[in-house]
Amino acid sequence: MTTKAIVLFSGGQDSTTCLAQALADFPNAVEAVIIDYGQRHKIEITQAKKIAAKAKVPLHIITFPLLSQLTPNSLTHSDIPIDHQNGQLPSTFVPGRNHFFISIAAVIAYQKKITHIYTGVCQTDYSGYPDCRQNFIESLQTTLSLAMEWPIQIHTPLMYLTKAETIALMQKLGKLHWYAETHTCYEGKRPACGKCPACLLRLQGFNESGVSDPLKYCQPVQ
Asked: Of 49, 86, 94, 157, which sits with the fewest C-beta atoms within 10 Å of its C-beta?
C-alpha cells in the first residue's frame, strides 16, 4: 500500500481546489484522473492538462463513451438546452456520473495500491444533485471497499463549503492563480460567457468572498 492519492479531476474550479488540497495532504504523491465521457465541451480536458502540468502531477485520461449513450442530458447532447426549472433537477444532471467516475478512480487506485480518492462533490451546491450528497459518498465508499476488498477512502473537502468558502480555501492553499486556467462555463467559451448558470454561480462566490476571479470573461462582469 502506498501513501498516495488520486484526484478525480475535471479542470473545473472545485476539482482544481481538491487537487490543491490533495497536494497539501500528500506532497509530491498525487495523481489525477479525468474522464472523457463525451461531454459537450472538450475544453475541460484541454484545461485539465494545463492545470495538471502546472501542478506537476500525472494526468490519466480515461475514455468512457458509454455514459453519453445511456442518458440524454445537456452536458452530453448539444441539442438539449441548458435549463433549470424550479423544483426539478437541471438538464445538466447526468444520472450515475459520480457513481461511475468514482468507481473508475477506485479501480485505478486499486491497481496502484492507493487508498485515497479526492472528489469535488458538494452538498451545498445549488443544483441539488443527489450524487453529490454525503450519504451517497459514504455508501459508495463502503460498496467499493467491499467490492475490491480494498480500504478505499473518499475525501470530499468541499462537501459543506459554499463557493465563497471554497475560494477562501484555495487562497489559503496559495493556489488561487490556478483558477485562471479552470473551465466552468456551460457554453464552453474561453473567455467565459459570464451569463450561464455555472458562470453566475462562480461569480456569485467570488463576489461573496471579496476576491477577484483570475478567469477571463467575454465582457466585464459586475
From this structure: 86
